[in-house]
Amino acid sequence: MTSQTNGQFDRTPLIAGNWKMNMDHTQAITLLQKLAWTLDDAKHDYSRAEVAVFPPFTDLRSVQSLVDGDDLRVVYGAQDLSDQDSGAYTGDISGQFLAKLGCTYVLVGHSERRTIHGESDELCNAKIAAAHRHGLVPVLCVGEGLEVRQAGEHVAFTLEQLRGSIAGLEADRVAELVVAYEPVWAIGTGEVAGPEDAQEMAAAIRAELAGLYDAETAARTRILYGGSAKAANAGSILKGKDVDGVLVGGASLDAEEFASIARFEQHLVTD
Ligand SMILES: O=C(CO)COP(=O)(O)O
């Protein structure tokens, strides 16, 4: 899947909306319908930019019914999964359940899980393995906090998270993996990393993967930027040659805004 190109990009861009803990299952239907209609009206070509949403767990069954019933081209995933497959893990959700609900993707190691729930790189590594056991594509989130950025250690910090989270992964798994660089200081703050910052980190991640694996594998991995992404800045962020999409939080709750991000090619900033 990730070896596709759309003619302009080396990899098919992925525009992903992380709804976080917003939207109950009835609101989810309204939002997803509106998103699909807006994209249809705009004659969105899904082969040029894939569109994915990440609703709360409790919405997934409704999302599945809508996507299947109306033949929507939007794909979807969950915001987290357990590293275990079944058993006495109260409150946790198995990758098996997510696969059964038609999920394509699953977020792993979002910074809000790393900070609020203390998730470590080792746990993310186990969650990636769990995702793979059930045929889900992990979207691994990495990124530094403000203090690390101010100390100029953001690249080293982020690459360490990456290495810890993907340890032991085989090359073909890395090639299909999605990595989302989400600097914590830019999440929900209105602060957006500059396009140069996004490109700098995406290039560093790709170079690291090339070193750990090989250039061909690294050339297939999709690397997203996340943190206050919106229609007004998507065009410049996606100009970076190693930036293959965006992981959008707040702006993905507005169907028109999110559809406009998915249509970023119309406002790509060129020199
Ligand atoms: O965390 C994010 C997406 O996963 C980014 O959130 P915002 O777009 O709201 O800053």
From TrEMBL:
Entries under PROSITE patterns matching the protein? TIM_1, TIM_2
**Claim: Transmembrane helix is one of the keywords in the record:** no
Q: Where in the cell is it found?
A: Cytoplasm
Binding, substrate: N18, W19, K20, G188, S228, G249, G250
Q: According to its UniProt record, where is this protein mainly located?
A: cytoplasm
Annotated InterPro entries: Aldolase_TIM, TIM_sf, TrioseP_Isoase_bac/euk, Triosephosphate_isomerase, Triosephosphate_isomerase_AS
The cross-references to SUPFAM superfamilies, in alphabetical order and at most eight, read:
Triosephosphate isomerase (TIM)
Q: Which UniProt keywords apply?
A: Cytoplasm, Gluconeogenesis, Glycolysis, Isomerase
Q: Which Gene3D superfamilies match?
A: Aldolase class I (3.20.20.70)
| UniProt enzyme class | isomerase
Q: Which pathway, per its entry?
A: Carbohydrate biosynthesis; gluconeogenesis; Carbohydrate degradation; glycolysis; D-glyceraldehyde 3-phosphate from glycerone phosphate: step 1/1
Q: Which reaction does it catalyse?
A: D-glyceraldehyde 3-phosphate = dihydroxyacetone phosphate
Does the keyword Cytoplasm belong to this entry? Answer: yes
Q: Which GO terms describe its molecular function?
A: isomerase activity
| Self-association state and partner proteins as the record states | Homodimer.
Family in the record: Belongs to the triosephosphate isomerase family.
State its role: Involved in the gluconeogenesis. Catalyzes stereospecifically the conversion of dihydroxyacetone phosphate (DHAP) to D-glyceraldehyde-3-phosphate (G3P).
What is this protein called in UniProt?
A: Triosephosphate isomerase
Which gene does this sequence derive from? tpiA
